[in-house]
């Protein structure tokens, strides 16, 4: 089967999907809608993946660019002559593919596109519905995505659930970073946050709650990775609460180094206001790290409080502070919780197993309409 893989930008997730597809019998062509100011994935496309050069993929895509991009997408479709298009997120790549009228179309939700962006305004809601209307099979990573699509009129029988999963060999329990000794944190209780510094991920909630908890317990430390548009605010909070000696800013960490950061933590934290099946959550579980995450629908599908970790009220700094202090108080039971986390990852987050659902979606879409 000749597959045109059409994504918004080129991210580590895209690299992983394309690497998996490159190992199948399918002939894969990769199409990129836009290029943001910061390159998200520096690795070249996997071997056997054919890069398509077209009008897009060179700069941020703007609404006025739409007609020209749609015209050139039709040219690409005619040139490549795919048997199937895999496109996402919904309001960008999948939307354009739907407007092009191509079938079969497998649209892949990236979580927040349908859970949040679909309700941003009337245009985004219309674009979401238009993409779904032209979709033959929808790939969703959690039940929340499936339920939202159904509420927008999409047939739930045409949804294939695909929790992306992680490499359980790469993300596994192991020794911590040497950085921990250099920081003098060997005997401290270390928290890890690595979500992007953007409003949807609640990094401000993490820093404020940590500041309060650290004021109550001097044994707490925070590994704060990532970056983003909220950097001035985050750095301002660290300065205001005088946390420079209790927070290590690790910046953007290469994918290959991430497991060591997870292994260095006693607790993984995510205050995201929207997620499907969070890959970073699955990575933490695979490394056997207890977790403390917001009680949004995507997380509720994964975490049973008291087993693999805990939940706190979304956006509630007091609830997160109490959760941090509670996790420290219950640290003696971390071994049992770590085993439960790793078991959950092994049973539900194995990339090698879950990848088959992507191929299942292709087969389902390729059936006669």
In short:
The chain is an alpha/beta fold.
Keywords:
369 residues, alpha/beta, Rossmann fold, 2 domains, seven-stranded parallel β-sheet, six-stranded parallel β-sheet, 15 helices
Description:
- This protein has helices spanning 12-22, 66-80, 90-99, 112-115, 122-133, 143-151, 179-183, 203-216, 231-240, 258-263, 279-286, 297-300, 317-329, 334-348, 351-366, and strands at 2-7, 27-32, 49-51, 84-88, 105-108, 137-140, 159-161, 189-193, 220-225, 247-251, 267-270, 291-294, 309-312.
- It is α/β, with parallel strands linked by helices.
- It has two domains: 2-165 and 351-366, Rossmann fold, CATH 3.40.50.2000; 179-348, Rossmann fold (3-Layer(aba) Sandwich).
- Helix 6 (143-151) links the parallel strand 6 and strand 7 (159-161).
- The chain starts with a strand and ends with a helix.
Strand-helix topology:
Blueprint: E1 2-7, H1 12-22, E2 27-32, E3 49-51, H2 66-80, E4 84-88, H3 90-99, E5 105-108, H4 112-115, H5 122-133, E6 137-140, H6 143-151, E7 159-161, H7 179-183, E8 189-193, H8 203-216, E9 220-225, H9 231-240, E10 247-251, H10 258-263, E11 267-270, H11 279-286, E12 291-294, H12 297-300, E13 309-312, H13 317-329, H14 334-348, H15 351-366
Parallel strand pairs: 1-2, 1-4, 2-3, 4-5, 5-6, 6-7, 8-9, 8-11, 9-10, 11-12, 12-13
